[in-house]
Design a protein that fits this description.
alpha/beta, 5 strands, two-stranded parallel sheet, 3-stranded parallel beta sheet, single chain, 4 helices
């Protein structure tokens, strides 16, 4: 599951090769709630039918990852370098990666 703005993701997916793995983008704006709220996760479950116990969520905001974890997301991953123009910031609470290739299958 990818939760994003829906604006920048297609270009990012093309650049990173993630597009082959991601069939749909869910936008928090379209679901009507911020990712930091339980209502967002309820709406996402209805819209996507995802199973939290096998779901990985990568985000650069610890508050989103904490809420996702509280909602049962099994694999919250912190994106330490969401911008190529800023230095990475690693999370003290969650496993951090700099690039999706670190966790993608070969």
């Amino acid at each position: 599951i990818v939760v994003g703005t829906g604006q920048k993701e297609p270009a990012k997916f093309e650049k990173t090769g993630l597009g082959a793995w991601i069939p749909k983008i869910y936008c928090s704006h379209d679901l009507g709630y911020p990712k930091e709220t339980p209502e967002f996760w309820d709406a996402l479950k209805i819209a996507s039918g995802f199973h939290p116990e096998v779901t990985l969520l990568a985000d650069d905001t610890e508050a989103v990852l904490l809420m996702a974890q509280n909602q049962g997301i099994a694999y919250p991953i912190h994106m330490a370098a969401p911008s190529s123009t800023q230095p990475p910031i690693f999370s003290p609470q969650f496993p951090s990666i700099m690039d999706f290739r670190e966790i993608m299958p070969p």
